């Protein structure tokens, strides 16, 4: 597929998706949403791609959210079935996704980052759900995900005022994993490399079980987790044999993702 508003590159097992509208602070119009949905469809379906990074072009913005100019001109606010940026409602994504946040992550941009599994942020990055300031609400998952990560009162303090939070405060609150001086994308690649050193089958089973467990009572979770798709796939995989064998033989495992 030819993309106009995003760039997709592959580095071995790693897919890097870059929102490429720096002149609009990487705000998403309808076509950009569709392109991102297609890119993450391709990533999810490709057995050779195990981890993804999403970032924004330029230094000023990760993503400024929905393109309000498009909305003001009558373009609407439609998003793909898989959510804002084709990611925020992709609840069956067992592969890990890292947000590499440069500059502002506003509204839907912050919701993209919250939908990812890890957030690496440049020290200059800032985050906000400012929708109430323009007569809207953060309806792409931010209202649910942020309180889970930072607690209700901290989340309300951000969501009801629309205030901006810097990268360091984001790390103190718990939604930023690492604050970076210098090459933020290199730091995200380092996290990806550490994930890629693990069995992709085990990584997916872990992510799926953790996210399902958030809403499941422990007694039921411990009984049902063996039936989760990624867990069942892990238990019958070649990787489940390779891992213990490599440990016993004191060598680096050769993961196949099968």
Automatic annotation (TrEMBL):
Keyword Lyase set for record: yes
CDD domains named in the record: crotonase-like
InterPro entries, per the entry: ClpP/crotonase-like_dom_sf, Enoyl-CoA_hyd/isom_CS, Enoyl-CoA_hydra/iso, Enoyl-CoA_hydra_C
A biological-process GO annotation: fatty acid beta-oxidation
Cross-referenced SUPFAM superfamilies: ClpP/crotonase
Source organism superkingdom: Bacteria
The keyword Lyase is annotated on this UniProt entry: yes
Keywords: Lyase
Gene3D superfamilies on file: 2-enoyl-CoA Hydratase, Chain A, domain 1, Lyase 2-enoyl-coa Hydratase, Chain A, domain 2
PANTHER family per the UniProt record, alphabetical: ENOYL-COA HYDRATASE, MITOCHONDRIAL, ENOYL-COA HYDRATASE-RELATED
EC number: 4.2.1.17
UniProt-listed Pfam families: ECH_1
Name of the protein: Enoyl-CoA hydratase
Single GO MF descriptor: enoyl-CoA hydratase activity
Family: Belongs to the enoyl-CoA hydratase/isomerase family.
